């Protein structure tokens, strides 16, 4: 008779599970399981089943409900560390003893749904992402909200690295996004290792290759300790210098930078880089004034005035700029532009603008008071 502490899905379910597996297990399998059942030893029962290759083969190739019952028994293990080790052993058994990757993924998903430990669920996500041919369906939804998920689980930054690396490796469309997230896990210079530097280098290359798509996520990357570390290494200091131009500089900075070897070394396309730095330069110019003459745009981008409108359209299409063109007055009317660099000069400019707004508001209030007085006096 089984202990009541082991009853999970149905009355006597664990006894039936043992009976189902007994014919495939070693000669003493049923006896060893019965001993665990009589003693209410959930950990011992799970360990006996996992360690028996014949029983596990029967379990893994059988109905998913039987596997789920074994996974549910993990919740009865009283020692948390032992529970986590057994859960990891069960996941490893799924991967090592099953050849069908779809079946592996189904059972790991079932285990993921049955586990409550955030650390275990995070580790299972790594396994699932690595196994999955594509990140679609329910797994795709989990990956899409993975940062929010990890935050809710209070997973420490350094513990997120395997998952971010797995996602970046699996999905090319998400590579840069998750490489940047990986770089962010190196919050202190003392934590930066060989893998951290490699991730920082890949993030820098990705940000130069495409500085537009992930503009908001990439805009603060120069403050990252791992990215800063690139500037201190002889083989990556030029890469960091070029990244700095794409983060804060303009076309002229790019033109004067000795970039040929850097572009070749990191397989960066010269035409694409020039196009992107022109768009970014236009955004920087637009952020400095609400009205920008065509001739100033042409000078900054080193193009003819006839080409200005096409570059404005390109910048607007990128989502970094919102503006209208006055073709008669030959000027751009800026509605909104991203700010690429925000330091003391920008703070001073913001302060001056706020002071101007304050003066204008005070003027309006004074005018309203005078109007009220005039109406009151007339009455």
SSE layout:
Elements: H1 13-22, H2 29-38, H3 42-51, H4 53-60, H5 64-73, H6 80-97, H7 101-114, H8 118-131, H9 137-144, H10 146-153, H11 161-170, H12 175-184, H13 194-209, H14 215-218, H15 225-230, H16 237-248, H17 251-256, H18 260-265, H19 270-288, E1 291-293, H20 294-301, H21 308-317, E2 321-326, E3 331-337, H22 344-378
Antiparallel strand pairs: 1-3, 2-3
Describe the structure.
The chain is mainly alpha-helical and 379 residues long. It has a domain at 1-123. Helices cover 66% and strands 4% of the residues. It has 22 helices and three strands. It has helices at residues 13-22, 29-38, 42-51, 53-60, 64-73, 80-97, 101-114, 118-131, 137-144, 146-153, 161-170, 175-184, 194-209, 215-218, 225-230, 237-248, 251-256, 260-265, 270-288, 294-301, 308-317, 344-378; strands spanning 291-293, 321-326, 331-337. It has a three-stranded antiparallel β-sheet. Helix 2 runs antiparallel to helix 3 and helix 3 (42-51) packs parallel to helix 6 (80-97).
């Amino acid at each position: 008779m089984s202990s009541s502490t082991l009853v999970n899905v149905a009355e006597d379910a664990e006894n039936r599970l043992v009976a189902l597996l007994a014919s495939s297990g070693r000669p003493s399998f049923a006896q060893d399981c019965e001993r665990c059942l009589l003693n209410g030893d959930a950990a011992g029962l799970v360990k006996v089943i996992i360690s028996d290759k014949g029983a596990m083969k029967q379990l893994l190739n059988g109905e998913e409900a039987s596997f789920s019952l074994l996974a549910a028994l993990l919740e009865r293990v009283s020692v948390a560390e032992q529970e986590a080790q057994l859960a990891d052993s069960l996941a490893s058994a799924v991967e090592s003893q099953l050849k069908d990757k779809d079946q592996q993924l189904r059972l790991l998903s079932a285990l993921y749904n049955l586990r409550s430990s955030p650390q275990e669920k995070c580790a299972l996500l790594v396994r699932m992402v690595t196994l999955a041919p594509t990140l679609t369906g329910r797994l795709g939804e989990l990956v899409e909200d993975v940062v929010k998920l990890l935050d809710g689980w209070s997973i420490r930054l350094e513990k997120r690295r395997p998952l971010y690396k797995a996602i970046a490796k699996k999905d090319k469309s998400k590579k840069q996004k998750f490489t940047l997230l990986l770089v962010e896990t190196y919050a202190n210079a003392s934590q930066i290792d060989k893998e951290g530097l490699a991730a920082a280098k890949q993030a820098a290359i990705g940000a130069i290759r495409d500085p537009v798509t992930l503009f908001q996520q990439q805009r603060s990357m120069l403050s990252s300790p791992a990215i800063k570390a690139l500037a201190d290494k002889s083989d990556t200091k030029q890469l960091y210098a070029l990244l700095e131009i794409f983060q804060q500089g303009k076309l002229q900075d790019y033109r004067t930078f000795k970039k040929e070897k850097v572009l070749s070394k990191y397989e960066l396309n010269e035409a694409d880089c020039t196009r992107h730095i022109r768009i970014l330069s236009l955004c920087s110019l637009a952020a400095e004034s609400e009205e920008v003459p065509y001739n100033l745009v042409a000078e900054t981008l080193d193009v003819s005035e006839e080409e200005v409108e096409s570059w404005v359209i390109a910048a607007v299409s990128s989502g970094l700029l919102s503006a209208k063109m006055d073709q008669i007055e030959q000027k751009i009317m800026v509605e909104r532009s991203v700010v690429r660099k925000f330091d003391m000069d920008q703070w001073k400019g913001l302060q001056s603008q706020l002071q101007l707004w304050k003066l204008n508001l005070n003027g309006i209030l004074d005018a309203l008071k005078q109007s009220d007085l005039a109406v009151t006096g007339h009455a």
